[in-house]
Specification:
This protein is an alpha/beta fold. The protein has helices at about 5-25, 35-55, 60-90, 95-105, 110-115, 135-155, 155-180, 185-190, 190-210, 215-235, 245-260, 265-270, 270-300, 305-330, 335-365, 370, 405-410, 415-425, 450-470, 485-495, 515-520, 540-545, 585-605, and strands at about 390-395, 400-405, 425-430, 470-475, 500-505, 510, 535, 550-555, 570, 570-575.
Length: about 600
């Protein structure tokens, strides 16, 4: 295939779109489409290489896969190595544990499937995960294993129809998974849902090999193509149903630009500035996200100020140039045996990071989990980690209390354990991220089917526990209302008039993570940090309804003195992130609220 400078220009556009989107998605809400442009280009270019070798009877699966590894592996593994070193010094210990799992799957080019199932409710969020972008490379490598087999098996006319059917099947699959199966996140990272974008590139190549388009039509089609690429950049956003049909619009635009290689727009894309950026596009893509993610993690904020953005951009370009000229190009010129020796060596080093990064991070003096984690108790009865219901407090005492809650319930488990231990009662707990396991919420209320399945599992267990217990404590965040929770709670209380229900008020939340701001668990006065606090009260209509039920009681702890110097207690941070108490904070809260809590229980005649 003849080298095309305009394809380098398309690569440049793709990486620029992604770069701007990741720097600040408000600037280019559909900038994530740059990834889809890369997928179409990959399908087009790789199929061209394979088909040419097959037609010339020069194709070898071993040589093909080796060439792909030689192209992708050096810079990619160098990035993983570099980011792992940075994480050791920047991440707190709990987050290092999550990073280690991501590193393991990234090394294996399976991070797309890992991140599809990742629970980022606790610890570093997606915008702070320096390896999140590796999902695209995982999808590409997985596709590279499939495509040559298809091109080898199916020949001539059959090949076109097979690729057309696979393209349609991929789009339909993605649409069905998102709209009907409600598998939004897993579909986004899915190879079957994304493969249609690669296959579209293959179809463009097959059409181009058989047909010649006049220059007049090339100019017309290229204008349509660039519009199909550019307009969605401003009309699409993270809320758009994607991938599926919507993804095929910019992908088709990319395909038209691949067809019209002699048009004025293609000549514009062949400008040397675009070609230079396109040449560096792989390295830029590798390096841009980790710099931004680690910046956000270190500064506990998504927004990147303009001056810092300029500095980050310069650093990203410098590292990208180094990666291209001294890593990519260096190993590309090496003989295969030396390449594989190097690959084995760096893989061994990365395996060492997977095994040792957590203990090394611990020894470097990071903040203990007691301050920087949600809790060191309660995960066995929580969400996706659920193994069994747990009993807290005085485990030898009679147990007639059950606590159901969300993540705010989880971080209050040390609170309940402290008070129960001191006042001779035990309490059974079941909690779940976002969706408290209160029975009675229909599947239709859930955006993600996986969230419903987990909720249903825990709600069924909770229903059995409710039958066993006389008193139910509800602890949840009222900051974000979960549809139909309130009616489900009311229905549950009315269903069991013989049982007592105690609903706790929420604790305050913050506008930023104090552990990150302080660089540890203790107040750093040199930072002179100011925090905004939010207190989400139980909605008035819910309060009114609960007060009308004789077996329900609201326990208002919002005036607790423990929060007078929020987020600190005696200069020690009480929160492990902006939304959740750490174990230290939960126990200090318990000491302050112990009397009120036990008095509320006495009203239910528990003592």
């Amino acid at each position: 295939m003849q080298f095309r400078f305009d394809i380098q220009g398309l690569r440049a556009l793709a990486v620029i779109f992604v770069f701007i989107f990741h720097m600040n998605h408000a600037l280019l809400p559909g900038g994530f489409l740059g990834v889809d442009i890369f997928f179409v280009l990959s399908g087009y270019l790789i199929s061209g290489i394979v088909l040419k070798q097959i037609n010339n009877k020069e194709f070898s699966f071993i040589n093909f896969y080796q060439s792909r590894f030689k192209r992708i592996l050096p810079a990619y593994y160098f990035l993983l190595f570099s980011v792992s070193i940075a994480v050791v010094f920047i991440y707190f210990n709990q987050d290092v544990k999550f990073f280690r799992k991501g590193l393991f799957y990234s090394v294996l080019f399976n991070s797309n499937n890992y991140f599809a199932s990742l629970d980022t409710y606790f610890g570093a969020q997606n915008s702070e995960n320096p390896l999140l972008h590796t999902w695209t490379l995982a999808v590409e490598m997985q596709f590279y294993f499939i495509l040559p087999i298809l091109l080898w098996i199916f020949r001539k006319k059959a090949l076109v129809w097979v690729i057309v059917l696979l393209t349609i099947a991929s789009v339909v699959y993605a649409q069905m998974q998102i709209v009907y199966a409600k598998q939004v996140v897993s579909t986004y990272y899915s190879l079957p849902a994304r493969s249609g974008e690669f296959f579209l590139g293959v179809l463009i190549l097959l059409y181009q090999q058989k047909n010649k388009i006049s220059l007049k039509w090339q100019n017309i089609l290229s204008v349509i193509g660039i519009l199909l690429v550019v307009v969605p950049l401003f009309l699409y956003s993270e809320k758009t149903i994607f991938p599926g049909i919507t993804a095929m619009i910019p992908c088709l635009g990319t395909g038209l630009l691949l067809l019209t290689y002699e048009s004025q727009i293609n000549k514009f894309l062949s400008h040397k500035s675009f070609v230079f950026i396109g040449k560096l596009s792989y390295s830029i893509y590798l390096w841009h996200w980790p710099f931004m993610a680690l910046y956000r993690y270190k500064n506990a904020q998504y927004e990147i100020p303009f001056a810092d953005g300029v500095i980050l951009t310069v650093l990203i370009l410098l590292f990208s140039c180094f990666s291209y000229y001294f890593v990519e190009e260096f190993w590309r010129r090496k003989k295969n045996k030396y390449f594989w020796m190097g690959a084995v060596g760096i893989t061994a080093v990365l395996a060492g990071f997977v095994l040792l990064i957590v203990p090394v991070n611990e020894k470097l003096g990071t903040t203990p989990a007691y301050y920087s984690s949600s809790s060191v108790m309660g995960f066995e009865s929580h969400g996706k980690y659920f193994e069994k219901v747990e009993t807290l407090g005085d485990v030898n005492a009679k147990n007639n209390i059950l606590m159901l809650g969300d993540s705010h319930g989880l971080v209050m488990k040390p609170f309940l354990n402290y008070i129960g231990s001191r006042n001779n009662f035990s309490i059974t707990t079941i909690t779940n991220d976002t969706y408290p396991p209160v029975p009675g919420i229909d599947e239709i209320q859930f955006v993600e089917n996986s969230n419903y399945l987990l909720y249903k599992k825990l709600a069924d267990i909770a229903a059995k526990e409710i039958e066993k217990h006389d008193y139910i404590v509800i602890i949840k965040s009222w900051k974000l209302e979960f549809p139909y929770f309130n009616s489900a709670l009311e229905k549950l209380i009315r269903q069991y008039p013989e049982k007592g229900f105690l609903i706790l008020s929420d604790f305050p939340t913050l506008n930023k993570n104090p552990i990150r701001v302080n660089g540890g668990a203790f107040r750093n006065r040199s930072k002179n940090a100011e925090f905004m606090t939010f207190l989400a009260e139980i909605p008035q209509n819910v309060q009114k309804e609960l007060k009308s039920l004789p077996n329900a009681q609201i326990l208002d702890l919002t005036d607790s003195k423990v929060f007078k110097d929020i987020p600190y207690f005696n200069d020690t941070v009480m929160y492990y992130d902006e939304n959740h108490l750490n174990q230290f904070g939960s126990e200090k809260y318990a000491k302050e609220a112990e009397t009120k809590f036990t008095e509320a229980l006495k009203q239910f005649k528990l003592n």
